[in-house]
């Protein structure tokens, strides 16, 4: 195994612009292939099984009474169930999905912009207190969202912003992890010479950032965007604390309201399951589509 | 039984919330009145003034009840918002809103969590509000008395619904096996043995429902919490509770009951396939069972809970909630007017029962709600609601909830979960919950007797 690791280290991608080294050709023993592959297959099964269960359970006529197994039994009703869920309560579920999409897209876009600007500034400008600022932001990664929910709620209620979209949107644009990643990446990917050249050509600092630097930082930005998108999409606590109007709920909170009714209306249990399936689809699509960038971006940040 | 204990607790909470103090003060929406005014006067709004109330709950279909009110009361409009279940997050939200002074006018709080919010000084005493004074006698006495905390004429919540309990059983299977319906817990044990011999189980001991276990102890006359004005007594391990714990421990040890999560897919499936022959449930379980075990329609019947003493009529109560008026509400009179209507008026109760499966907390509602006087085909046309009305009359009115029920429940559930897996006993679970409860009450600077 040790030679395999060395080989992997040798072939670590260089910074953007540099070409990839060719992987040395080496014969691998059967065991060396089977063992890791077998492990990965098991791990994949372990993670996919709940997803598969979700698909099967969403296709049933009713939960509970018709079995809890991992294969389809009885009529296949997935699409019928989906249309039932979308129509329940005057289509409130569609609204929740749209809200989630709005919160996550806005939070991820603006959050990425802020993080890239902050990370870039911290990487490329030397000013007194730079490390102090960076360390404070880094400390923000360690503060759990749970601890911030109540102070955020009290702040929002000071300006009468609770129970409004802004109460969820504004805190969603902050990503300390994104700033960290952008700084690391900008330090490595944006050469000082290039900035010098841009300045000599008369570009303002803003122009240099938006036309030159931001393009070089693109892989990191995709990573930050996806990361923030997932965080906001899955956020439950912040909307729970801020919102009372269920027309403003994201899909996480909406499903939770349905789930608290299952002890009174049994049919809702099926809606919760089908709704959960629908609510992860956008994330699955986003991952499959942007997977390439996600992977490169993460490893770039990790290696430097 | 005086008010001092609550003042004491309030001071402790205020002390622990120093950081939030400034926000809480400036955020108050009390308006022109001084803080003490809400406790005494409860006046209607001036003539011609339009009042808008906000109301949050997680009762399915409550919007329809609110719409009916809004169409009949143009001057008092209610803005309804559906939120997540109390223990799923809304209680936490209420606590935050109380701190910020941004509560809705009316909220939903289950009976077992009322003391928590009383301790936070978040609730308005609507006992002197005219609509409440008029409607008070209509409620089942043990339900309304739970909202007073022993204070004279105090009402801190309008009962919305209650959950008196009974035994749902498969009449066809019991008859076929020649097993009499158990009237006492001894007979229940005997029946359980016979049913096991038939290759099935009499029922389930729900591993994740501490409120269910509490109801079992309540039926036996357990007294978990009491206070004498200055000091709380906590006795989760009193003789009555111990008896209940030992009983179920015996059934678990002899494998006479299943130990799966209650009201879960697993339990419904066991009931639907005849693997389990009965369930000890509340009034609101009626519709749930009907929709969750559809293959067994017509084969069920409902009998009173088995008794600890032959010939008794004691019943437990599982669940139930109140509509509270929060202290910051500017219109406690109208809020009380709406709440007493929404959970007292026959038309409203009919809607609540139809949409939300609520079993009314008023005597009149229980006796003459049209939906509650007919036989149900799922239960072999039995008039099951009469059983629950009787059960409601047999609920011990002296049972009191503690001020940290969320924690008590969570520790109890942990212990029960361990006990059914052979790690300790139910008795150990109670002992641990007792210690943790005392600890957590002391952490809130409440005086607790050892």
CATH architecture of the largest domain in chain A: Orthogonal Bundle
Q: How many individual β-strands of chain B?
A: 9
**Oligomeric nature of the chains:** heterodimer
CATH architecture of the largest domain in chain B: 3-Layer(aba) Sandwich
| CATH H-tier superfamily of the largest domain in chain A | MetI-like
Strand count of chain A? 0
Q: Report the biggest beta sheet of chain B as strand number plus sense, adding barrel if it closes.
A: 5 strands, antiparallel
Mean pLDDT of chain B, to the nearest integer, reads: 89
> Biggest interface in this structure?
A-B, 34 and 44 residues
Low-confidence stretches of chain A: 1-20
Q: Could you say what the CATH topology of the largest domain in chain A is called?
A: MetI-like fold
Structural class of chain A: mainly alpha
**Average pLDDT level of chain A:** 84
Strand content of chain A: under 5%
Distance between the termini of chain B: 19 Å
Count of structural domains of chain B: 2
Radius of gyration of chain A: 24 Å
For this structure, the CATH topology of the largest domain in chain B is: D-Maltodextrin-Binding Protein, domain 2
> Which class of secondary structure composition applies to the elements of chain B?
alpha+beta
- CATH homologous superfamily assignment of the largest domain in chain B: Periplasmic binding protein-like II
């Amino acid at each position: 195994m040790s030679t395999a690791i060395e080989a992997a280290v040798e072939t670590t991608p260089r910074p953007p612009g540099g070409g990839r080294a060719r992987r040395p050709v080496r014969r691998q023993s059967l065991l060396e292939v089977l063992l890791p592959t077998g492990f990965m297959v098991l791990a994949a099964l372990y993670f996919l099984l709940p997803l598969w269960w979700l698909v099967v359970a969403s296709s049933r006529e009713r939960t509970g009474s018709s079995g809890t197994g991992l294969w389809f039994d009885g009529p296949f009703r997935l699409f019928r169930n989906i249309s039932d869920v979308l129509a329940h309560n005057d289509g409130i579920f569609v609204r929740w999905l749209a809200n989630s999409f709005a919160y996550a897209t806005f939070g991820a876009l603006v959050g990425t912009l802020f993080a890239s600007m902050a990370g870039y500034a911290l990487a490329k400008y030397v000013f007194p207190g730079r490390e102090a600022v960076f360390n404070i932001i880094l400390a923000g990664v360690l503060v759990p969202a749970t601890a911030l929910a109540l102070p955020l709620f009290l702040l929002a209620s000071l300006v009468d912003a609770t129970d409004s979209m802004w109460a969820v949107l504004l805190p969603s644009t902050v990503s300390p992890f994104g700033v960290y990643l952008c700084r690391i990446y900008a330090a490595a990917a944006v050469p000082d010479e290039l900035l010098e050249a841009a300045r000599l050509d008369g570009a303002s600092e803003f122009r240099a950032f938006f036309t030159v630097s931001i393009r070089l930082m693109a892989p990191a930005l995709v990573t930050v965007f996806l990361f923030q998108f997932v965080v906001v999409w899955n956020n439950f606590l912040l909307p729970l604390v801020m919102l009372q109007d269920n027309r403003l709920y994201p899909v996480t909170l909406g499903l939770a309201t349905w789930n608290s009714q299952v002890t009174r209306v049994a049919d809702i249990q099926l809606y919760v399951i089908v709704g959960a399936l629908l609510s992860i689809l956008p994330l699955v699509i986003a991952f499959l589509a942007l997977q390439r960038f996600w992977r490169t971006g993460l490893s770039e940040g990790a290696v430097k | 039984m005086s008010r001092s204990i609550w003042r004491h607790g309030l001071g402790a909470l205020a002390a622990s919330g120093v950081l939030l103090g400034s926000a809480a003060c400036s955020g108050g929406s009390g308006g022109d009145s001084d803080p003490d005014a809400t406790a005494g006067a409860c006046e209607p709004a001036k003539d011609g003034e339009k009042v808008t109330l906000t109301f949050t709950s997680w009762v399915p279909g409550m919007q329809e009840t609110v719409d009916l009110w809004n169409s009949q009361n143009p001057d008092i409009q209610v803005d309804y918002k559906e939120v997540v279940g109390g223990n799923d997050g809304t209680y936490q939200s209420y606590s935050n809103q109380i701190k910020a002074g941004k509560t809705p006018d009316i909220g939903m709080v289950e009976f077992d969590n009322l003391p928590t919010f009383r301790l936070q000084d978040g609730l308005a005493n609507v006992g002197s509000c005219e609509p409440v004074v008029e409607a008070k006698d209509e409620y089942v006495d043990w339900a309304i008395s739970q909202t007073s905390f022993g204070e004279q004429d105090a009402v801190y919540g309008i009962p919305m619904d209650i959950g008196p309990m009974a035994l749902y059983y498969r009449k066809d299977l019991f008859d076929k096996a020649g097993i009499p319906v158990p009237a006492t817990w001894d007979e229940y044990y005997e029946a359980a043995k016979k049913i096991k011999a038939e290759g099935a189980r009499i029922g389930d001991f729900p591993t994740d429902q501490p409120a269910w276990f509490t109801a079992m102890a309540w039926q036996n006359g357990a007294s978990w919490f009491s206070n004498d004005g200055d000091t709380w007594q906590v006795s989760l391990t009193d003789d009555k509770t111990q008896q209940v714990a030992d009983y179920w421990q015996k059934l678990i040890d002899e494998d006479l009951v299943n130990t799966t999560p209650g009201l879960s897919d697993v339990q419904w499936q066991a009931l639907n396939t005849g693997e389990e022959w009965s369930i000890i449930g509340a009034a609101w379980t009626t519709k749930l069972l009907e929709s969750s075990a559809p293959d067994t329609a017509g084969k069920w019947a409902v009998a009173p809970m088995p008794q600890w003493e032959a010939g008794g009529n004691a019943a437990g109560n599982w669940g139930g909630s109140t509509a509270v008026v929060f202290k910051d509400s500017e219109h406690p009179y109208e809020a009380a007017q709406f709440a007493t209507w929404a959970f007292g008026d026959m038309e409203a109760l009919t809607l609540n029962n139809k949409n939300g499966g609520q079993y009314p907390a008023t005597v009149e509602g229980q006796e003459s709600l049209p939906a509650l006087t007919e036989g149900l085909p799922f239960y072999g046309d039995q008039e099951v609601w009469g059983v629950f009305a009787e059960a409601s009359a047999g609920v011990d009115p002296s049972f009191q909830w503690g001020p940290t029920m969320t924690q008590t429940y969570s520790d109890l559930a942990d212990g029960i979960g361990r006990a059914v897996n052979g790690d300790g006993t139910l008795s150990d679970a109670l002992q641990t919950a007792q210690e943790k409860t005392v600890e957590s009450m002391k952490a809130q600077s409440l005086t607790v007797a050892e």
